[in-house]
Design brief:
Bound molecules: adenosine-5'-triphosphate
Order of helices and strands: EHEHHHHEEHHHEH
Structural class: alpha/beta
Shape: globular
Strand content: 5-15%
Helix content: 55-70%
Length: 202
């Protein structure tokens, strides 16, 4: 099993941008968002269970999960939210483990936006947090997603705090700088993780 570096950060902090830089250096990426979509893709057993539990409104005409509807549906219903978590969490866990086990490199990057929220830090050898101040986070998210300040701020409020994320960090990328600066930090971390991974391998 490879050495696993978890990459996390709040909305619009720059996770995707940083992960792409590692990928360009040849690092294999395991993406929690992609896995979360795969386990409920059309035809999957989990999607059928969701349909049986919540009714046909949970499925879009094309057969995909109606995420917007489901989000609203569980918003003020902790029991349904728990039911959904109990269904999806083990499937996501299993698929994540499988993808990590298939990697033959010494280490990989596990991009996991909700690491802090879901308390998954023990499943990584190392936690790398992409950090920016909240004002920059809001500005970049508004510009990228074409949403209002209030919408961006509401998403931020629903996520783990910057402080709680930094508390579990082994390494931090300050992403307030330029892409050139990021690139240098990524190159330095790349070397560090290579060394740590081969030390673990023994
Ligand atoms: P999400 O959690 O919403 O998926 P993310 O953490 O993956 O977000 P990115 O999509 O990588 O964040 O970055 C958010 C926005 O900020 C993007 O438009 C990206 O191009 C921009 N961005 C990222 N890093 C920088 C930087 N160093 N300087 C300026 N803009 C940046």
């Amino acid at each position: 099993m490879p050495y696993v570096v978890a990459l996390t950060g709040g909305i619009g902090s720059g996770k995707t941008t940083i992960a792409e830089m590692f990928a360009r250096l040849g690092v294999k990426i395991v993406d929690a968002d992609i896995i979360a979509r795969q386990v409920v893709e059309p035809g999957s057993p989990a999607l059928s269970e969701i349909r049986n539990h919540f009714g046909p409104q949970a499925i879009l005409p094309g057969g995909n999960l109606n995420r917007g509807w489901l989000r609203q549906r569980i918003f003020a219903d902790p029991v349904s939210k728990q039911w959904l978590n109990d269904l999806l969490h083990p499937l996501i866990q299993q698929q994540t483990q499988q993808l990590i086990n298939e990697i033959t490199d010494d280490w990989c990057l596990w991009v996991v936006p909700l690491l802090t929220e879901n308390g998954l830090q023990d499943q990584a050898d190392r936690v790398l947090v992409v950090d920016i101040d909240e004002e920059t986070q809001i500005r970049r998210t508004m510009a990228r997603d074409n949403i209002t300040r209030q919408q961006a701020a509401d998403i931020l409020t629903a996520q783990a705090s910057r402080q709680s994320r930094l508390q579990i960090a082994d390494d931090v990328i300050d992403n307030s700088g330029s892409p050139e600066e990021q690139q240098q930090v990524v190159a330095m971390l790349y070397q560090r993780y290579q060394l740590q991974a081969s030390a673990k391998k023994g």
